[in-house]
Q: What sequence folds into this?
């Protein structure tokens, strides 16, 4: 039985989602303070904290969804049908950061607000927190021409926390 494998235990992933959320919240506070302070030449600091917060909030969503996947796969993990994290990540077909794909692939039910939150943060998970533009030319043009913009609601921290808490509740209710 793989119960000793922390890499396959959903609680490890919940905990990591929660700690990344804390870091994201701190970056959001820094972003807000720079924006409110109206510092001269603050553009780089605003971009840094905005992008870092978006990336970290996105990662916390990605981690809680992966916790949910491991939770749903716990019988296969306990029976050692799934023996390693590598076994399960192969199922993702190089879509490990594409949370919308993971949600669909594993039939994880989300309400409308939760889907919208994932859609807002998806670019940060895939590229915006790490690169200035996406990989595909048509996406680059959409951003360069202003047809798409990166943004998230001012209360993103509250929405992400609610998302994480709901997923934890689902996992705890199914467990009992």
A:
């Amino acid at each position: 039985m793989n119960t000793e494998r922390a890499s396959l235990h959903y609680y490890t992933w919940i905990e990591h989602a929660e700690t990344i959320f804390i870091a994201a919240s701190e970056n959001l506070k820094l972003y807000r303070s720079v924006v409110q302070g109206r510092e001269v030449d603050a553009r780089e600091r605003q971009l840094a904290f905005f992008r870092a917060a978006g990336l970290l909030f996105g990662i916390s969503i990605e981690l809680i969804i992966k916790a949910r996947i491991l939770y749903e796969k716990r019988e296969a993990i306990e029976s050692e049908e799934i023996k390693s994290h590598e076994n399960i990540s192969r199922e993702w077909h190089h879509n490990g950061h594409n949370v919308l794909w993971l949600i669909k692939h594993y039939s994880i039910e989300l309400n409308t607000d939760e889907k919208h939150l994932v859609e807002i943060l998806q670019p940060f998970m895939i590229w915006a927190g790490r690169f200035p533009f996406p990989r595909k030319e048509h996406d680059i043009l959409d951003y360069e021409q202003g047809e798409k913009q990166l943004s998230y609601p001012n209360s993103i921290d509250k929405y992400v926390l609610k998302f994480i808490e709901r997923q934890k509740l689902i996992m705890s209710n199914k467990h009992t």
DSSP finds eight helices and no strands in the chain. The chain has a mean pLDDT of 91.
